[in-house]
Structure formats: C-alpha cells, structure tokens
Specification:
This protein is an alpha+beta fold and 132 residues long. It is 42% helix and 17% strand.
Length: 132
C-alpha cells in the first residue's frame, strides 16, 4: 500500500526489484527471465533478493533464466549453468561441475580471472583459445 503513492526514484534498489518481481508474478508465469537482477544492489540486499527468488521458485514452481556476469551469485542461486563465449554456449552443466571442473579453456580463463585475489597474479596473461 505504501508503494502506491511513490515514484520509482523514491524506492531503493531492493524495493524496485521486489516491485519488478511482483509485476512479473501477476501474470502467473512458468518462467521469469532475470537479466542482472542484483548487479546494482548492495551485497546484503543481493542475498535478500536471491533468497526471495529462490522461495518463489520453490513455492510457485517457477523457473528462472538467471543472466549474470557474477559467478558467485550464479552459484548461490543456480543449479545449472551455461557459459557463453562470443554469443555461443562454450560449456553447460551442473553449476558445481562447470565451476570446479571446467572442461573448456574459456571457462577456465573466466574462473581464473575472478577467483584469485593474489595481487601478484593481476598482470598474468592467459591466451584463450576458442573452438567455437
């Protein structure tokens, strides 16, 4: 009720995402495409939105196509993952299999680029060979 009199710019990022989900749910979809739904949110709000989406998935039996560049949130929310390279699927499978035992060089390079906090490795170069 409090949202009825507010303009979008008056809402927080988390509130806006909840409104977007509510609008989508009105149509009783079987699937929701969520393109970077938490990328601009604070970490604590990200977790809240992902938990809400997960609860909706379980309670309403909705599928989500979760599009993100953030492999950490993908792992937190997802069950299956597809890694895209140059607009094509480079690797697909159960999320832990792909992230912990990648088979494609591109997937390995993608994971290496984000998972090593050692500053000595920031300048390392890795050539990506694509078989696409």
């Amino acid at each position: 009720d409090e949202f009825m009199t507010k303009y979008p710019h008056m809402l927080s990022g988390g509130q806006r995402q909840r409104v977007v989900l509510a609008r989508a749910l009105i149509l009783k979809p079987k699937m929701i495409i969520a393109d970077e739904p938490v990328s601009m949110l604070d970490v604590s709000i990200r977790a809240e939105i992902l938990e809400l989406m997960d609860a909706l998935r379980e309670k309403l039996h909705i599928s989500f196509l979760y599009i993100t560049h953030d492999l950490a949130t993908a792992r937190y929310f997802g069950q299956k993952i597809a890694i895209l390279h140059l607009g094509k699927i480079a690797e697909v499978g159960p999320i832990d299999d792909v992230l912990f035992s990648p088979k494609q060089e591109y997937t390995k390079a993608l994971i290496d680029a984000i998972s090593d906090p050692n500053p000595d490795n920031l300048t390392r170069e890795r050539k990506i060979q694509s078989n696409l």
